[in-house]
Amino acid sequence: MYKRQQPYCQAKSGDAKHVGGVLVTGQDANKPVERREPNADMTTEQFKEAYRNKLYSLYAKTLEAASDKEKYLTLASLVRDEISRTWLQAKKLRAQQQENQEKQVYYFSIEFLLGRMLDIHMINLGLKDTCERGLRELGIELAQLREEEEDPGLGNGGLGRLAACYLDSMAALELNGHGCGIRYRYGLFEQQIIGGAQYEFPDDWLKYGYYPWEYRAADEAVEVRFGGAVRLQANGRIVYIHENYEAVSAVPYDIPITGYHNNTVNTLRLWSAEAELAKQACAAGQTDCRNTLQYKQSLESISHVLYPDDTYHEGKVLRLKQQYFMVSAGLQNILRDFRKMNLPYANLPDKVAVHINDTHPALAVPEMMRLLVDEAGLSWEDAWDITVRTMSYTNHTILPEAMEKWPEDLFRTLLPRIYMIVHEINERFCRELWDKYPGNWEKIRHMAIIADGYIHMAYLAIAGSHSTNGVAVLHTDILKKEVLHDFWEIYPQRFNNKTNGVTHRRWLLAANPKLASLVTETIGEAWLEDPCRLQDLTQYADDAAFQKEIAEIKRRNKQVLARIIQQKNGIAVDSDSIFDVQVKRIHAYKRQSLNVFHIMDLYQRLLEDPDLPVWPRTFIIGGKAAMGYYIAKRTIKLINSLAEVINNDKRIRDKIKLVFLANYNVSLAETIIPAADVSEQIPTASREACGTANMKFMMNGAVTLGTLDGGNIEIREAAGHSNIVTFGLTAPEVLQYYRQGGYNPWDIYHSDPRVKRMLEKLVDGSLSSDREDFRAHYDSFLHHGDQYFVLKDFAAYVAAQEIINGKYQDQKVWRRMCIHNIAHAGWFSSDRTFAEYAAEIWRLNEAAISCQDGCEQPGFSPIAKRLGTMLQ
Ligand SMILES: *Cc1c(COP(=O)(O)O)cnc(C)c1O
């Protein structure tokens, strides 16, 4: 059922040749990879001089007097200069392209989890070696400066990180792809662990400004309107007049996204809410100016913080405001650019693709309609056709509680004109359904965009776009067969799958430089531009010398992480133990509690028999819990309480350690993942749409221990069934249970004494002096039906852990598994994912797919050519 075609990574696997002792592949054997390193010719001496001058001009200080922060900012400024130079060229090129009318993609996302940028830009621009050498000669360690960069936390987790990986790949593939999002003043909170529990502190990422990596473009600000009322005026045709609204300035900040060695610079445009217009209105006597300061604050609060708590009404309003703010500013900007081309609007879908990443930007559909109908004067029918052909949508979750819907009243008050448009879209959509299913009210009500007082954002996105994709084969399958089955029935051609990917440049080349160098020494550097070439490593899977080097690199990465754990947590861990890692948002469906239960059980067994044949193990867990998510926050406390007990128990002779690493973010991920032996990917089957951390771990040679869910299934296909360990209920089984109303956890409680013992430990004071601390967990497992099948999968999980323990003891077998994982990680590069999006959804290369040898024809864009070869 999960057989997938894999043309991207299989096409040329037979072509590897050895040339001069180095393995090179395909055409590359004869032709060196074309490198365009803009500053390959800058000498170390020139760098040092430029660095000193920059430091003087920025801070009027000598090297000796400068702080690390100032040294970092000096380096970043030099890199910025280099970006500016390249960017200017890229903009010129883009202006030409617009004349030649190449299609532009705009990826709308409420989150972009970029991570630090210094390293990536230096690598992409070909500057890293020169900078590192030059700094060393000045007595500065690059690694130290790197730590000075703030990690902009403009996302919660996977969704935002995915958007950032895609930006990287679009630039690397030289696609005209840009991001559109919000410049939150405060990112996701900073997590601190105090007394074992999570405390949230504001993430003041702009404390020192984001000067090196952003460019404010105030002259391109646009106005976004909220509230007010709509009046109809008939002057030959009906005109909608929006009045008494509140106007906010959306001011763009552009973050350059550099491509790998290709002189491409794309743009991530983040919008910031400012009250400039309010000031003007006040000056012009249009508004009451007595409370201007308060008013200004209220307007600017729109881009104040990522995902404000929506438990209260106020929070909900703010969140809807954010969504409309981003979409309206983004689309106005796109249409302004489009108009410069002097083309009829009917051509918009050939020149522009707007991608809706999850439902948060789904208001792009009615906003595009507003701009085309109200402002450009198109007919509803024409505008609708253009909108549908321009938009595409990715679904990221099937969790019912994550399916966004907005109360009609709130929506109508905040966005009166948009509400009218959604209403009209719904009317027409229901009429279409009526023609298809005459008299079937039940079905129509079930599919309606507005029903029972709510507006369903996913339905709006599907109805208003030409493509809806899931993010893993299984996930797309579940969308078609279950969650969105009715929609799939009417629009089967709109549904497709695009399995997620991660950029191998950040997650392997930058995060694990030692492994990256070994790979390049072994198979050449073709993998950097064509990650599928990693497959050439398979022939070294049993090579003793190669295995030894792989093991040595892993050991050194583990030593680095062990030092960090010592510093941060004050816990001494053995870098020869198995590093067993689960890092991701804390959520019931991700089942950190299953991990905890296995650790509790293993601990118990070690107490009973200290000579138990288990390889020493360090369990590492990290992740943030949403601020208002009680049980997830308790899970963090549970992990820390258990850690306290285990790490201080001399009887188990350090055989196991448990560490919770606080404030998980991209930078921490970049240190943890290269050091992992075991990648814990254990969600309840069917609940994790795809996952992306699973791919990052694989790329770094960790072995997945996972359920048959999301991307894990495809990882198993790619790496080979013997190179990953899977367990537990399958998705069809879980879905069957859900249909039946669940299962009875008491059966397991009574039949498995281990389960009973552990559950009792949650509430008998063994882990915490407050017996109520973990009562909510206890109740969720026993009294609320164990919704996520933790107890049900427990025995299978323990058995799978035993397999891991066994395999690790035979180091030859283990290293072989690691190598196979690295070798087959190429397919999970976001370069592959993006080539698929570009070809199949945005159709950037209409001609390229069919182009086999005609690619040399004049006028054929190099991008199309490149995509053509990638997808053959
Ligand atoms: C990759 C990544 C995620 C996503 O992890 P999953 O395990 O796929 O949910 C979340 N946060 C950060 C910081 C990441 O780098």
Automatic annotation (TrEMBL):
<keyword id="KW-0808">Transferase</keyword>
<comment type="similarity">
    <text>Belongs to the glycogen phosphorylase family.</text>
</comment>
<dbReference type="Pfam" id="PF00343">
    <property type="entry name" value="Phosphorylase"/>
</dbReference>
<keyword id="KW-0328">Glycosyltransferase</keyword>
<dbReference type="GO" id="GO:0008184">
    <property type="term" value="F:glycogen phosphorylase activity"/>
</dbReference>
<keyword id="KW-0021">Allosteric enzyme</keyword>
<feature type="modified residue" description="N6-(pyridoxal phosphate)lysine">
    <location>
        <position position="696"/>
    </location>
</feature>
<comment type="function">
    <text>Phosphorylase is an important allosteric enzyme in carbohydrate metabolism. Enzymes from different sources differ in their regulatory mechanisms and in their natural substrates. However, all known phosphorylases share catalytic and structural properties.</text>
</comment>
<dbReference type="GO" id="GO:0005980">
    <property type="term" value="P:glycogen catabolic process"/>
</dbReference>
<keyword id="KW-0663">Pyridoxal phosphate</keyword>
<protein>
    <recommendedName>
        <fullName>Alpha-1,4 glucan phosphorylase</fullName>
        <ecNumber>2.4.1.1</ecNumber>
    </recommendedName>
</protein>
<dbReference type="GO" id="GO:0005737">
    <property type="term" value="C:cytoplasm"/>
</dbReference>
<keyword id="KW-0119">Carbohydrate metabolism</keyword>
<dbReference type="InterPro" id="IPR000811">
    <property type="entry name" value="Glyco_trans_35"/>
</dbReference>
<dbReference type="InterPro" id="IPR011833">
    <property type="entry name" value="Glycg_phsphrylas"/>
</dbReference>
<comment type="function">
    <text>Allosteric enzyme that catalyzes the rate-limiting step in glycogen catabolism, the phosphorolytic cleavage of glycogen to produce glucose-1-phosphate, and plays a central role in maintaining cellular and organismal glucose homeostasis.</text>
</comment>
<dbReference type="GO" id="GO:0030170">
    <property type="term" value="F:pyridoxal phosphate binding"/>
</dbReference>
